[in-house]
Predict the structure.
Amino acid sequence: SVGSMAATLDQFVSRVRSLSESEKYAELAETIDKSTEMLARNIGHATNVLESLDPERHSLGHLAVLSVKASMPSIPDVESFMHQIVTFVKFCAPEQIRYAAESYCSLCHFYTRLIIESKKPMRGIETIRLAIQKLRPSPSHLTSVHADLAQLCLLSKCLKPAIPFLDCDISEFVQENGRFDVKLFLLYYYYGGMIYTGLKKFERALHFFEVAVTTPAQAISAIMLEAYKKYILVSLLLHGKVCRFICCPTGNSLSLSSLFFVSCLSVLYLLCLVFPLFHFCLNSSMCIFQSPNFSLIN
């Protein structure tokens, strides 16, 4: 009944407020996990619940409702929902959202997709920058949201906002439920290499493409193959030859098709039959990332 639904939601809001005020965030995160189905059944009242929770003081509760809304088959008012996400990212408390890193990152990925679909990628750059800063404990931590920022910068051809994040030496990962998505790790280095190439920072671009290619894997992914192609182009541009990798982990070998591609391209270069490609690289390095295959998130 309507009355019982209202009572259940009131209990949820009360519980979120109570545990938030007492800073029992681990217990609150567990409570929220158990309330996901209830929130989904009452999604029609989501706006009322959001209005009852402060995004800063009750960040975990606010995040739970937004995550459930994002999981629905359709969103009636996409623009309004994007505004709710932007507001949440602006005001949410870092010490709370780190107890729900997976939900937080998933919401950021969803927001990024909405922004890309709106054909206005530049709109999302500042929000995703802030989202990363809120989640990571230090600049040396890599989050899965880093790849979203790099993709938005590439799509908008506004590359410099990503540089402070790419210039950091990564030593740790912000894990989501004890793991880190290797696809988003590869995309961070692939997109990062594209950004450095666009800014003509070729040494750094070469390093990023190399990391993407030499990451240990049981099979060669499409991202690794595309990174390898870009590695060849930048290597030829910078050194006039295809350089050996500085470090290639044991058990991670390139496919025969990739090696064949390298061999053919190197021979053509040496025979001076690759002038159009070299001319393209010299005069239009910004265009390398405009290839139809650069956006690999399917």
User: Anything to note?
Assistant: The CA atoms of residues 267 and 273 lie 9 Å apart. The chain has a mean pLDDT of 85. The longest strand covers residues 141-142.
